[in-house]
Description:
Blueprint: E1 4-10, H1 14-25, E2 30-34, H2 60-73, E3 77-80, E4 83-89, E5 92-97, E6 101-109, E7 113-115, E8 131-132, H3 135-138, E9 146-150, H4 154-163, E10 169-173, H5 185-193, E11 197-200, E12 203-209, E13 216-221, E14 227-231, E15 234-237, E16 241-243, E17 273-275, H6 287-316, E18 322-327, H7 332-347, E19 353-358, H8 363-368, E20 376-381, E21 384-390, H9 395-407
Parallel strand pairs: 1-2, 1-6, 2-3, 6-17, 8-15, 9-10, 9-15, 10-11, 18-19
Antiparallel strand pairs: 4-5, 5-6, 7-16, 12-13, 13-14, 18-20, 20-21
Amino acid sequence: MEKNYDVIIIGAGPAGLSAGIxxxxxxxxxxxxxxxxxxxxAAITEHLENYPGYFQQGNGAELMKxxxxxxxxxxxxxxxxxxxxxxxxxxxxxxxxxxHNYVSRAVIVAVGSKPRELGVPGEKELSGKGVSxxxxxxxxxxxDLELVVVGSGNAAVEEAxxxxxxxxxxxxxxxxxxxxxxxxxxxxxxxxxxPRIEFIWESVVDEITGEESVEAVAVKNLKTGNxxxxxxxxxxxxxGSVPQTGFLQSVLELSHxxxxxxxxxxxxxxxxxxxxxxxxxxxxxxVVTAAADGAVAAVAAEKHIRQxxxxxxxxxxxxxxxxxxxxxxxxxxxxxxIPVVEEFAREHSNKFDFLxxxxxxxxxxxxxxxxxxxxxxxxxxxxxxxxxxxxxxxxSRMEDILTxxxxx
Length: 408
């Protein structure tokens, strides 16, 4: 039997943990589902120098532990499981996992991403045998050996610097011209000056070779086409990441790269489903931006749940006819109509109840009744629409509504 939660967060990286802190602190029954260990990619970052106020500690694992403890302190719960699908059922969200199923009123997707593979011969065959995507995990296995790092972004260059603490030599293979890296200036400068770091420019790794473990890589120059063999005991690959959104393809709008499209409130195209962190389409992917996304998503989820409660109390559980006036502070016609309908409602208060609905704030109610333009006047009985009027609504049209209300 599924247990119901207010909010379920999928993923326990910086975005998910931040969302867990904000949601549970707001008094929502909150569950974070994580298939591995909490912390995500940040937990395996040795040097975390750009998280505000955290430069002295500089350890991603410690920061993630603190965030998890923070969420737990406010009552956030954790489950070790992998979510396989998301389904909508009568306004609720059903998450089917490998171990259990879960139900909630709001979902925050914060599954992050996994390292992108090169897709070259030898990569899969030698994965775990010298091919790695995590320097923090495997660096100590390569003491005094020769390593190749593929990539030129922050992750590649930072991890190359870390690997140089252990290895005899680290060679960075970059597609860019000599001296140009995608990493931040201070990180690039540090790598350029490091005595055990070398560079191969304007090149790609197009094969990884070895019998029982990595022995060498084939490096192809993009200008000349020449192919050289570079001795290597290990290859660390940092060429981007792939969002873990395969289980959402049938229910959510995704970008061409598989990231989730959201607005500034972290809302997706599905009501009550939000996304935060690296899984979202956005220009900057850092721990600090993921944490910010999580906070915004949790606040938006709390507002959604409050709207859900309001909808149930004001509409679903109400007996008798109800007149709804949908308006917007950006539409003068709808503003002008408010006192007219209020006066009409006062005159006939024994016949029906009246409720104003701002479409900008009450998205749930607006979507439930398919209201896309304002002003609109609806006569409803619970969730059944008895009649609808839009645009310029005359007194005679309101009398028509009253006649229908009397019949109900």
